[in-house]
Amino acid sequence: MQTARDLIAEYTSTGTLEALPKGHFIDGTFIRPSHNRTMESFDPGRGEAFSGFTAGTREDVDQAVRSSRRAFETVWRDTGPAERGRILQKAAALILENLDLLAVTETLDSGKPLQEAMGDVRGAARAFEYYAGACDKLQGDSFPLGPDHIGYSIHEPVGVTAHIIPWNFPISTAARGFAPALAAGCTVVAKPAEQTPFTALLLAKLLSDAGLPDGVLNVVTGTGIETGAPLTSHAGVDHITFTGSVQTGKAVMKAAAEEVTRVVLELGGKSPVVVLSDCDREQALNGVLGAIYENAGQICSAGSRLVIERSIHADFVEQLVRRTKALKLGHGLENPDVGPVNSAEHLAKIAGFLDRARARGASIATGGSVTQDPATGKGWFFEPTIVDSVAADDELAREEIFGPVLTVQVAEDAEHALALANECQYGLVAGIYTSDFARAHRLARRIDAGQIYINEYFAGGIEVPFGGNKKSGFGREKGLEGLKSYCKTKSIAARIA
Measured between alpha carbons, how far is 392 from 114 in angstroms, rounded to an integer? Predict the structure, then answer.
């Protein structure tokens, strides 16, 4: 098995990786449809294509859905929970055995630094491990109906589930959806983002190698229009898990409404990091930096708004700027502090926000411009950026930029910070830094967001339910709440006397 060093050497010398899969993954194998249409996948760190993949059609989606329907009705829903758990546990082990291949592939596809991709792969393995242990613990309730009746409930799998996977965390998002769906007894048809198709395909093959029956997990690649839309509108789909933009999420909801299909939506975010004057300064500085610059800020739950008390604002931002300027940019395989953004189109979108802000006279404390890999002069990079003292009605404080851009908002006190935190159309996550634990929990109760971090941004793991309020979507993934998304409750009552 090739190590990360071997794979990087192969890529450096050939510009690609031989191990990258070809075709869709349907019925337990890679297939190339007769139309043989392909697309290019780009390395954001170089801004160059490094491989091709199948551009799917409506017919390919239909084949995958029909395959998963057969597998659900004939095999998977009736597979014993303990056996499902054993397969998922084996999958977790295989993911770790293939850590280097998956991580290097993720870096080439998404652009993120290799150490971040390694963490994502380990997190994917942990998701399968966690839900492997939950398979045989899905138990219902009994109802106190008196001596003449018996009543109880059971959890049943919803059926065929569609998963639309985003480009910013391809393997992480795939795993957090696949694992609970399979644990509940559902089958899966996945459509990875056209920018990052490969780790979903590799993951499907590893699950097959772990013993997952053919057709239980199918992956179709291609564009949102030609494969994503047909999948979310397919009459054979019983549930949709979607992660992406608000605009596309609305389209998914409309398509689902036509077939009355269940939906879980994880959409955008403009998450505040509330830093109060009594915080541990070093802890808060490190937390704010990681919250916005991990994965070049391309995270739905990124801490993209710093809401800070005025009494510490100037000194805190000065230190933050100094640390931000010291961050090293580079190709993901070089393990930089900050990697590229995912595409030329997205780079232009980020630049547009800063161009408009500059025209409005915004106070750009550092960064604010398109740049390149200092080592090669290539790639799609944007400077780590801080914009200071932004008004609450400015688009930098209201719209999701999805890049390495931190917006600073100044609060007079904790109550004002709370108001600023909630003055947003999104409600995905929020961070709080303070030494007053009671005040932290009071704020946590009053901030309108699906998940709150206290004194550590991105705290928690697969055990903690995740999802948003307001325009950040609805439904929950991860934790036992995530497992329930793939279950339907059946109640049974009977007279026994």
Answer: 36
Domain holding 317: CATH number? 3.40.309.10
Q: Same structural domain for residues 179 and 224?
A: yes
Residues forming a β-bridge with 242: 164, 265
Q: Do residues 279 and 189 share a domain?
A: no
The model's pLDDT over 29-44, given as tens digits with 9 standing for 90+, comes to 999 998 989 999 999 9
At residue 441, does pLDDT exceed 90? yes
Contacts of 348 (CB under 8 A, 6+ apart): none
381 within 8 A of 373, measured Cβ to Cβ:
yes
Q: How far apart are CA 271 and CA 440, in angstroms?
A: 16
Residue 102 lies in a domain: yes
| Torsion angle of the four alpha carbons 377, 380, 383, 386, in this order, in degrees rounded to the nearest 10 | 180
Query: Mean pLDDT in the chain?
Result: 97
Which two tokens mark 336? 């930089």
Look up the domain containing 260 and give its range: 4-267+475-490
C-alpha 25/C-alpha 32 separation (Å) is: 9
What CATH number did the domain enclosing 74 receive? 3.40.605.10
* 470 is a domain residue: no
Q: Which residues pair with 490 in a beta bridge?
A: 154
Asked if 300 is an active-site residue, the reply is yes
Residue found by looking up tokens 């993954």 in the block: 25
What percent of the chain is modeled with pLDDT above 70?
100
267, 245 Cβ separation under 8 angstroms: yes
CA 10 to chain centre: 29
Residues 263 and 308 in one domain: no
Q: Helix 170-184 crosses helix 99-110 at what angle (to 10 degrees)?
A: 120
104, 153 Cβ separation under 8 angstroms: no
One domain for residues 177 and 32: yes
Same domain, 119 and 258: yes
Q: Are residues 181 and 289 in the same domain?
A: no
How far apart are alpha carbons 84 and 65 in whole angstroms?
Answer: 21
Q: In this structure, is residue 466 part of a structural domain?
A: no
Same-domain check for residues 257 and 279: no
Q: Which residues contact 369 (CB under 8 A, 6 or more apart)?
A: 351, 354, 382, 383
Judge whether 399 counts as a catalytic residue: no
Pick the catalytic residue from 135, 186, 300, 424.
Answer: 300
pLDDT for 387-425, tens place per residue?
A: 999 999 999 999 999 999 999 999 999 999 999 999 999
- CA–CA distance, 394 with 356 (Å, rounded to integer): 11
Q: Is residue 497 part of a domain?
A: no
Name the catalytic one among 106, 116, 129, 266.
Answer: 266
Residues 27 and 151 in one domain: yes
Residues 309 and 412: beta-carbon distance below 8 Å: yes
Q: Evaluate whether 497 touches 148 at the Cβ level (below 8 Å).
A: yes
Nearest Cα residue to 214 out of 435, 25, 63: 25
CA 417/CA 184 separation, integer angstroms: 41
Phi, psi (rounded to 5 degrees) for 196? -140, 70
